Amino acid sequence: MLITCPYCGPRDVSEFAYQGDGNRTRPDPASTDPEAWNAYVYDRLNPAGLHNEIWQHAGGCRAHLAVVRDTLTHEISSVRFAREHGAPAHGRRKPGAKA
Ligand SMILES: [Zn+2]
């Protein structure tokens, strides 16, 4: 599987580290709502199809990337810098929403 880093170009997936589900939204750090924190820490989507993911180019420029990957085919349809990905390209789960 190749991931096209916006800085470095196409690179083997072995250069990247999976950083997690890109659908999560961190609650306000001052929040004491246990359900919001529980959802942030433990709830994960497990779609058969397009999935928003965060990867780090750990073996390259070290940039964090927002990747849309098809979990069935591993085809990558979008790669952006994570800092630019206010809303993922493929849907977004509302905080606390059930999968
Ligand atoms: Zn890179």
Automatic annotation (TrEMBL):
A molecular function GO annotation: sarcosine oxidase activity
GO biological process annotation, one example: tetrahydrofolate metabolic process
Source superkingdom: Bacteria
Pfam entry (one): SoxD
NCBIfam families attached to this UniProt entry: soxD
This protein's name: Sarcosine oxidase subunit delta
